[in-house]
Design brief:
The complex is a heterodimer. Chain A is mainly alpha-helical. Chain A is 69% helix and 0% strand. Chain A has one domain. Chain A has 3 helices and no strands. Chain B contains 7 helices and no strands. Chain B is flat. The relative contact order of chain B is 0.15. About 13% of the residues of chain B have low confidence. The chains are: A mainly alpha, B mainly alpha. Chains A and B meet through helix 1 and helix 3 of A and helix 2, helix 3, helix 4, helix 5 and helix 7 of B.
Chain lengths: 65, 149
């Protein structure tokens, strides 16, 4: 299975929300190995997840919380 | 989020939007969702758009029109209150239901299956909404935060 960048971003996203099938994981790795743009998006998705988790709850200071 | 939005008018000062938004999310989110899923089926009334919204980013073969660039020192942003203000503004700009699903998943850490069940939508619809939220947030942060040099 050859993934386009569009399909890759979708799988990157779904990989956070469901267990990808073995074939999907392989195809994803192959694509990421050759595509810098999709590697950047992968890093950005990860960063956004971290940032949204750190949004303060009930007024905690995000720097300390 | 609906409760949050309707309460916005009465929120005095807005100096601590984060406290307000996350407090509402934390305390009212379940009530709001339950009420809404009773009052109206999740499928129809509120268009969430679909992934075609982002087609412009790709060429016909599905490759990037413009290859995404790495964000510079994103970790440093997490030390800045201004970054979180920008993030909140980007979240607030999402379609309401998309933002709610995204916050349930990534801020509250609920399982996708729980979210789907509570909202009465299919898993596939859930994944589509989460993907749209990430794509939209990525563009918004790039434009409003990481684009600044």
């Amino acid at each position: 299975m050859i993934l386009s960048c569009k399909e890759t971003t979708r799988l990157l996203s779904q990989g956070e929300d469901r267990n990808l099938a073995f074939g999907e994981r392989v195809a994803l790795r192959v694509h990421l190995a050759i595509c810098k743009g999709c590697r950047n998006v992968n890093a950005q998705f990860r960063f956004m997840r971290l940032a949204v988790k750190q949004l303060a709850r009930d007024g905690d200071d995000p720097k300390t919380g | 989020m609906l409760a949050a939005l309707s309460a916005e008018a009465s929120f005095a000062g807005r100096s601590n939007l984060r406290t307000w938004l996350t407090g509402i999310l934390k305390h009212k989110i379940v009530d709001t969702i339950r009420r809404q899923s009773r009052e109206r089926p999740a499928s129809a009334l509120e268009p969430d758009g679909d992934e075609r919204d982002f087609d412009a980013l790709f060429d016909r073969r599905g490759h990037w029109e413009e290859s995404p660039q790495a964000w510079q020192q994103p970790e440093g942003s997490l030390q800045q209150n201004q970054f979180f203000a920008a993030l909140e503004a980007c979240l607030a700009a999402l379609p309401e239901r998309t933002a709610r699903v995204f916050m349930m998943r990534e801020h509250l850490g609920l399982e996708t299956s729980e979210i789907c069940k509570e909202l009465g939508i299919t898993a596939t619809h859930c994944w589509v909404m989460l993907h749209r939220a990430r794509m939209a947030l990525r563009l918004c942060l790039e434009k409003n935060w990481f684009g600044k040099t």
